[in-house]
Design brief:
6 helices; mainly alpha; single chain; two-stranded antiparallel sheet; 6% strand
């Protein structure tokens, strides 16, 4: 790795995260570490994150509060990915309907933190939804980790088609 690659990866990226309010560098460091997790470590991490997501969704997203109540289940009923069969598939139609009526928007996250994104609609109608800078940062970091697997380093030239 060249001096330029190190400078961009360890100075410029964290500084740009600071300026833009993102966390790409933090998540990139985590992902480069977690790629070496054992199977048991990975499963434990996934289950921990899944339980936190389910609890957050039940507590803060009206659609999921109503869904859990209707299905007569609690967040404690979802502990692993195998338990996800207890929940129905979230379709684009359900997303559209409940996005527009606000039921799929977390009550505990300021709308100022939302980034509006959408799909291209290649399989039909485009889909609009919100994400956060944290989720966006994680996605970019995951892409960068994939690029690293292919030999890319921060500061390398590339062509995107």
């Amino acid at each position: 790795m060249s001096l330029l690659n190190n400078f961009i990866g360890k100075i410029i990226l964290p500084f740009s995260d600071f300026l833009l309010g993102q966390s790409i560098y933090k998540y990139f460091k985590f992902l480069t570490k977690s790629q070496w997790f054992s199977k048991d470590q990975l499963i434990a991490y996934q289950n921990q994150k899944l339980k936190a997501l389910i609890k957050h969704s039940f507590d803060n997203v009206p659609y999921y509060t109503e869904l859990f109540n209707k299905l007569k289940i609690t967040p404690d009923d979802i502990k692993t990915k195998e338990d996800l069969v207890k929940l129905p598939i979230l379709t684009k139609d359900i997303l559209r309907e409940n996005f527009n009526n606000g039921k799929l928007i977390a009550k505990n996250i300021s709308r100022k933190k939302f980034i509006s994104v959408g799909s291209s609609g290649s399989t039909g109608e485009p889909l609009q939804y919100f994400t956060t800078k944290e989720a966006y940062s994680f996605n970019i970091a995951a892409n960068l980790r994939g690029w690293y697997w292919m030999g890319y380093r921060f500061g390398d030239k590339f062509i995107k088609l």
